[in-house]
């Protein structure tokens, strides 16, 4: 049977290599998760910003149109 504690790789035992990999795996996984979440939030924020811009543009157009109609009505009424 192979003794895993005595296998050397650049003067590291197999146990040392596993300890290094396991200690590095969690921070790397968290970094990947954080970057993916951040990118998704950025995309959602851009979509919301675009939606808000469209809504404000439509509201501004509606207000201008309403003002125009009111002015035309007053002009017609006052004649």
Automatic annotation (TrEMBL):
The answer to whether the entry has keyword Transmembrane is yes
Q: What is the lineage of its organism?
A: Eukaryota, Metazoa, Spiralia, Gnathifera, Rotifera
Q: Which organism is it from?
A: Adineta steineri
Superkingdom of the source species = Eukaryota
- Keywords per UniProt: Membrane, Transmembrane, Transmembrane helix
Ranges that cross the membrane: 12-33
* Protein's UniProt name: Uncharacterized protein
